[in-house]
Amino acid sequence: MFDFDYQIKMLPDKPGVYLMKNSLGEIIYVGKAKVLKNRVKQYFQKSKNHSEKVIAMVKNISEFEYIVTDSEMEALILECNLIKKYRPRYNILLKDDKYYPFIKITLNEEFPRVFVVRNIVKDGAKYLGPYPDASAVYEIIDLIKKIFPIRTCKRTIKEGGDLTKTCLNYHIGLCKGPCEGLISRVDYGKIVNEMLDLLLGRDRTIVNKLKKEMEEASDNLQFEKAAALRDKVIAIDKITERQKIITGTFEDEDYISIYSDDTDTCAQIFFLRDGKIVGREHFMLENTSWALKGEIIADFLKEFYGGTAFIPKSIYVTDIVDQELMEQWLSMKRGTKVTIKQPQKGDKKDLLEMVEKNAKMTLEGFKTKIIQDKELNGVAIRNLAEVIGLEEIPYRIEAYDISNIQGVDSVGSMIVFEKGKAKNSDYRRFKIKSVKGANDYESMREILTRRFQHGLDEVEAIKENNMNFSAGKFSIFPDLILMDGGKGQVNVALEVLNKFNIDIPVCGMVKDDKHNSRGLIYNNNELFIKTSSSEMQLITRIQDEVHRFAITYHRSLRDKRTLHSVLEEIPNVGQKRRKELLMKFKSVENIKKASLEELLDTNSIDKKSAESIREYFHKE
């Protein structure tokens, strides 16, 4: 069980993002904090005057995790990316990257312009941002227009092309008149480069000039002018603030670092997509005390990228052995060149240090949690065995559930808990084959029959070949079976077990009128179990998990069927394109919302098919 008091004490006095989770492990809230310890602690203080929404959310929090950042600004941008990714239930509709302003410099034009946009398109232009402070962005654009004579018109202007008359901006000194050929492309480019130097924080000459004018205005008692100049300096400082969360490129990059103690290692990966952190993963590595840091990272790269479909163009690490060989292997898997880099200075090195810092905190929290979980889970399993009346403690528990809507897309799920902890690698899903309509009893009979028939077949094969029992998917039988349901489901399970002459105790997990776990059915009797007891909390976790696993599979089948049926109606979208759209956008609603550029970014989608998709969903 998650120890809130201890975990709150362990929170750092640093900025970052925190993620609240419910009993199913789902992220229900993402927030940012200037000081993580202070902010998270507030949620669990009874003395606080919380809103009804916060009170309801806190009741559903089973655990939390956090990501440390180097500034509150980084935490804000990361928070928005995570909200966009997870769409947590209790987050309000905060502005995300889609609505944050970007500064666009049209370097794809011979005479570039600069203006504010809300979306990014891969058109060869340069984008800076996103910037949470929209007012500062517009203020700096206004300032840029006053300082640099950059054109604002939408004309297509080419050097040596057709000339047009200059507009008012030229006559008031806000443009150099490229439309009338009054400035060369080279000289105009120098102005653009100076502007970029300012926006990227590489040149403080203009800021120093403004500060000098501000001091002179103040000395001359021109306080309004001084205040206006001060506001301009503040706006520039906001825009040019360096942020490691944003790289300013469109490349996909992974940042990997590790932290080791005497026995274990935590590997942490931050995923950057289109220059923004969109998520992270951590992996616990055992028996690493003998290895050097570069060896551990190299072995981890092989394990991780050997089992993932996507490999980015650039991978940043703190150390590695056999770098050239690893690059060749990764390039071969990706199909194009992959570069492994070890930055020695700058933003990328700073970001790697942040990754390692999170790896350290994750490892420390993980080891503490393991010790606590082992103790708590051990107590829960022993108490569960005592309540049921089992002579032996159930080391392995399997639970089963059925999910369908009016008999459509019926599926079954099997989850496994060992030593009181979920063993995800042993989870199994079953698509119901022989049962038509909504018949949960017969559906359960089918999946249990298939499960134990497979298991017995594997046991025979393992014995014949002198193999380890862990070699099969179903060869290890449980010490206890929990059915999501009452006496009917239990009796079905017992009938299947009797058919195969298998002796395993079976309990039914029953719920109350509010759909909360109430207790167990065993030998046709309901067992009284205290709601607050450790064994009841274990039963609740198992029941929630088996239901989640079943309904997730059911929804995925339903969504695929719905998506395929809709896409089949769209001209110029064949089977291959339907499959790629399904993999990329996941749902019909996401495809409907996709822009033309996003559709074209799908491998097999050309302009004709993209236009067909847009026309189909936007006929009105």
Biggest sheet features = 8 strands, mixed
Question: According to CATH, what is the class of the largest domain?
Answer: Alpha Beta
Give the end-to-end Cα distance, rounded to a whole number of Å.
Answer: 53 Å
Q: Number of DSSP strands? A: 19
What does the model show?
The chain is of the alpha+beta class. The chain has five domains: 83 residues, GIY-YIG endonuclease (3-Layer(aba) Sandwich); 138 residues, no CATH class; 112 residues, Nucleotidyltransferase, domain 5; 147 residues, UvrC, RNAse H endonuclease domain (Nucleotidyltransferase, domain 5, 2-Layer Sandwich); 50 residues, 5' to 3' exonuclease, C-terminal subdomain (DNA polymerase, domain 1), CATH 1.10.150.20. It contains 19 helices and 19 strands. The strands form four sheets. Strands 12, 13, 14, 15, 16, 17, 18 and 19 form an eight-stranded mixed β-sheet that branches. α5 packs across α9 and α13 packs parallel to α14. The longest helix has 42 residues. The protein is elongated, with a radius of gyration of 30 Å. The relative contact order is 0.06. About 2% of the residues have low confidence.
